[in-house]
Amino acid sequence: MTRNKLHYVFGLCLMVIGFLLMLSWVKPFAIGALRVKKVDPLADVRLTVPDTAFAELDSLQRDSTFQKVDSLAKVVRRGCPIGITCIEDYSPDSTGIRNFVRALSHIKDQHNAVRIAFYGDSFIEGDVFCGSLRDTLQSVFGGEGVGYVPLTSEVAGFRTTIKHQFENWKTYSLISKKDSTVTVELGPVGFSFVPQEENWVEYKPTHHRFLKTFNTIKLYYKNQGHASVEYTLNDTITSTEELKTSNKLQEWTHKGKNIEAVRLAFLQPDSLNLFGASFESRSGVYVDNFSMRGNSGIGLYKIDENMYKDFNRYRDYKLIILQYGLNVVLEDSMNYGRYAHGMIKVVNKLKSVYPKASILLMSVSDRSSNTSGEYKTMKAIPIMRNAQRLVAERTGIVFWDLYEAMGGENSMVKMTEGKPALAAKDYTHLNFKGGRRLSGRMAKSLLYELEKYNKRHRK
């Protein structure tokens, strides 16, 4: 008589189900060009409950409103000259860029410094983009110096616009892992640098025009103890100064001439937090690079508004540029309503803490992924670009379409595989040549806005 083995089948089914449930805990990963997606054995039976808090933005994203925003973009760019990616102004009275271009218009009469705060992610780190933008604007309006520099940096050896070395620091940021035993206030850029025993940081200028020497050196800090700064100029002259004790952000300044090196060390640093340094000169344009690798931009909302305001009391920014999105787009996600909702809150906060600045949201760049052995634009990129345009429209600020300035669909493939190559082999980031080309297009757009302003006000 044959033995009944039906229970083996049942047992095998349980093993397969158990194995699939175990796989559902494994996050998506890639091995070379092979991408392994997340396993979800319950996907067909799970009920999806819509998130009512973001339902409006999500539904708008799919159909009618994005079409309306696209149409509105065509209207606001009407009359734009061929060869320029014009800035789209979504402010109620079409004055979204006025604070910035008005400051540029008077820069030579009033001998002022016009500062730009450029917030972004790894796309702009190392001054790949900002360095050329700064160089172009300083060649037109004057200015000598690289502007803001952090105390420590993951890309210090990569950056070519300043030489930077350091030792014995702890660095905290918006995106670093939280240590529940440590309470550190983050600065206006999202970083806090805490000096340890035997700390030092050294900066030297480079061979780039406008960056060959230091003249004015600044530090931004909070000191609630008795800390002091010891600074050595040109490897020879060492001086020490006490830092102000206050619960507000402070600025320390040293004015010199043709300084070729500065080494800083902080004594009795127990109650000292530093937020950054700056190298500048007389009047002109300064582009402060506030890059943070892995940042989505949403975390800027967490920074205390008084920190922003105290920083702006010293810097007096005329233009805030926001470049984000690359760290949010996913290959198989087409829904960015939640992200747009978060960025609307960020932009509205920045409008309140930088009241005399124009705010420009720069769209996500093109980014490619390998699909069936061929690199193509990720499907989520134009959707993210539209979500960002919607953020600009809802907050009444100006928008610059980097995706279009690059050439649109598959432009990153062309930049990566072209000769000369203008982008890195990750099909995501620019190299210095690519940064120079695209920042030149942004500079052209900003100068076109200045030209329009001057025509209107100097008839």
What would the keywords be for this entry?
459 residues, alpha+beta, six-stranded mixed β-sheet, five-stranded antiparallel β-sheet, 12 helices, 27% strand
Folded structure, characterized:
With 459 residues, the protein is α+β, with helices and mostly antiparallel strands. It has helices at residues 6-23, 55-62, 64-76, 98-105, 107-110, 130-141, 305-315, 337-353, 380-395, 402-406, 411-417, 432-457, and strands at 29-31, 34-36, 88-89, 113-120, 147-149, 163-173, 191-204, 214-223, 228-233, 237-242, 250-259, 262-267, 272-280, 284-291, 317-323, 358-362, 368-371, 374-377, 398-400. The strands form five sheets. Strands 3-19-16-15-4-14 form a six-stranded mixed beta sheet, with helices on both faces. A five-stranded antiparallel beta sheet has the order 6-7-12-9-10, with no helix packed on it. It has a four-stranded antiparallel beta sheet with strand order 5-13-8-11, covered by helices on one side. The longest helix is centred in the C-terminal third of the chain and has 26 residues, at 432-457. The chain is globular, with a radius of gyration of 25 Å.
